[in-house]
Amino acid sequence: MTSTRIPALLSPYLAFPEEASLVLLSGVLGASTNWLVLRFLAAALATCEQGHATHDGDPETVVVTLSFLREWTFWRVEAGRVGVDLARALKTRRFTFLDGLSHLFSESSSPRTVVPDGLHSLYDPTLKSIEKEVLAVIKDIKQSGKGERSKKIVLVIDGLDLCLAVTGQSAQDVRDMLEEWREHVHSTVLTASADSPLIHSTSTPLESNHAAFVTGLAHEARLILSVRNLNTGIAKDVSGVIRVTRGGTWDGRAGDAGGRDISGQAEEIQEKEMLFFVGGDGGVKVWER
């Protein structure tokens, strides 16, 4: 039976990220990072709730998710399957969602839809507008802290590499936008596609851009979690392989790249490969290879 909770073997890698850290989640066609993102959200929101209850003097933490590949309904439903109530987190202002899919490429001139607090949509696909709108949301959240405290933000971005294809901008332009956001948040978790044609082929400008973008992220990340299909093909009881590696900014401190668990203790990070299985109920099993 698969578990909707965070598998024990993954706990050190999904712990609350250290300040200024970047965690890169890479996936390929047939081996999505969705289940990893959901468990990052679960771990981060659990830390938010406990931190608020036991460390009243610390800045309140908010998880901001920006998704270019999936809309709010997908994340709300899938998170519910693993025991995370994103709608409740939205109401308590511990979670904010930016929809970079539903309206970003719409040619309709109709008025913008009124949405609940904490839900935002991007409407202009130009890189400058995307950067400006996301930054405005981040700054509003930080400034909403009580007194002199600014809120601590964990930024989760799903599919930022899509901007390379739809904006026509260079890898450096998109990375510069990301760096601007990172200056205003506590830490960042980012997904990107790492299919072989996008990483190893440079026959088109998009392929060259994508390879440069993902390679640059790997150098900037402290921790990289990569999921891929089995080399031997499809198996009914194994979904794929997850590989944990240290990124280019890993500096060897225990817990530095992976962060801290719910109790605040530094987690030891070890590079390894594991097998995983994602069940039909959304649950996941992870075991040593």
Please tell me about this protein's structure.
This protein is an alpha/beta fold. Helices cover about 30% and strands about 20% of the residues. The chain contains eight helices and ten strands. A ten-stranded mixed sheet has the order 4-3-2-5-6-1-7-8-9-10, sandwiched between helices. The longest helix is centred in the first third of the chain and has 21 residues, at about 35-55. The chain is globular, with a radius of gyration of 18 Å.
Q: What are the salient characteristics of this protein?
A:
289 residues; alpha/beta; ten-stranded mixed beta sheet; globular
Structural class: alpha/beta
- Largest beta sheet: strand ordering: 4-3-2-5-6-1-7-8-9-10
Spell out the helices and strands N to C.
Answer: EHEHHEEHEHHEHHEEEE
User: Oligomeric status of the shown chains?
Assistant: single chain
Detail the poorly predicted runs.
Answer: 53-59, 254-258, 261-266
Instruction: Give the percentage of residues in beta strands.
Output: 15-25%
Radius of gyration computed on alpha carbons: 18 Å
Mean pLDDT, to the nearest integer, reads: 86
The tally of helices reads: 8
